[in-house]
Amino acid sequence: MMDLPTLIMETMFTLSGALLYPAIILLLVFVVWTLTALGQFISEYSGRTRNLEQLRDGCRETRALVQARSYGEAAETLATSGSNPLLRSFTGDLAKLLDDDRFSIESEKLLQDYEIRIAAELERLKILTRTAPMLGLMGTLIPLGPALMGLSAGNVETLASNLVIAFSTTVLGLFAGGIAYTIMLTKRRWYLQDLSDMEYVVRMVA
Question: Which residue ranges does the record assign to the MotA/TolQ/ExbB proton channel domain (predicted)?
Answer without folding.
Answer: 99-187
